[in-house]
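Tutorial, part two.
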Amino acid sequence: IQDIITSDLGWTYEHCFPSVTTVPPAENLSLNIERIKSVVLEKMAADSDWRHSAAVMINNPHNASGTKIPTDELKDLLGSLLTNDLYVIDDLAYQDVGPYADIKRIETCKELVHDLWKKGKLTGIQRDRLITIHSLSKTDSFAGARLAVADIPDNRLAQQFQKATEHILPN
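Running the prediction step on this input gives:
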């Protein structure tokens, strides 16, 4: 993956990907879904092969606003992206972390995509374009540990990831 679209203003994905397009949140700090869809369409119109080396990065709740993406809006976005054969990266660094008076479980993109697949709205190949990254630093209180789990169902992409990271040694 060479190019990502993200709404995350609190982290520099530039350290991970050669090209990053940031779509700021809407004025109410919610995910600007229509703008994300618009940027995706612009990039696909400019380069018909773009979708094969690109992804949209999602984190829910949003970093750094803490805003939870409404489930129906997120399902709509996921369906739109995956049916256009784009990769989606679900960054779970802030899963179930937010400025809430009570803890409310937030469904992950994987759960929502599985539901879309079960209902026949996605093919297995489209479902497998969802990549899940879970960092242990925030949600599991291992700040600074630099540990993560990557679930990459697309076999070709998983092999590329393994090759790119095989030189990383435990610290």
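The first strand starts at residue 3 and ends at 6. In part three we will examine how such features are distributed along the chain.
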